[in-house]
Amino acid sequence: MQLNIDDHDNPIMDIVPRYQTTIDDKLLELTQGDITQEHTDAIVNAANSSLLGGGGVDGAIHRAAGPGLLAETRQLGGCETGDAKISGGYRLPAKHVIHTVGPVYQPNSPAVAQALASAYRRSLEVASDHHLTSIAFPAISTGVYGYPVDEAAEIALNTVIAYLASGKGTITQVRFVLFTEEAYDVFVETLKTIGSDPDESKPA
User: Fold this and answer.
1) 44 touches 89 (CB < 8 A)
2) Can you give the pTM of this predicted structure?
3) Closest CA to 74 of 51, 97, 48, 49
4) Gap between the Cα atoms of 23 and 162, Å rounded
5) CATH of domain 3-200
6) What is the pLDDT of residues 80-111, one digit of tens each?
7) Are 23 and 14 in contact (CB under 8 A)?
8) Which of 142, 147, 164, 157 is nearest to 190 (CA)?
9) Fewest CB within a 10 Å sphere: which of 15, 96, 156, 163?
10) Which residues does 24 contact at the CB level (< 8 Å), separation at least 6?
11) Nearest one of 144, 148, 172 to 160, comparing CA atoms
């Protein structure tokens, strides 16, 4: 696995910080922003098991997509924790929404950690099953489900890196879109810890 860090902290562009890594010629990006504005093939919705909308990212995606999204998700029959299902994007810039259900946090629970990893992995698998090449994730389960951002970031990044390095599927670009600067900073530091030599970081 080849992992090279490219730190995009250009002071002229610091309104939207971005940090990126290449993994076997596939791009992994971290950015702060609004996931509903992403133009990737799919965005991932941190949904509840009903797939009928809710608060946080889930509510924001449903509001931005319009009523067609709810009409379609009503037909999907819900979703188990750790699994994922796909719908159209409707009024979103992204053509598809992949709905995944993360776990409610429980400290020191291997099953909960495995369920969070599964939510990311199944989202990537569903995207590849539909021949998509780019996908944007929020920080799944870190809202009302209470997953600490530092623990969630480690699971999320390790799962995505392992998937990209495996050579499976069609995904060539993964972007994490973090809503707050604090979450963005945690993901950047976690990514550095996972795979970077400090000497590899360089300004854009």
Assistant:
1) no
2) 0.90
3) 51
4) 9
5) 3.40.220.10
6) 999 999 999 999 999 999 999 999 999 999 99
7) no
8) 157
9) 15
10) 1, 2, 164, 165, 167
11) 172
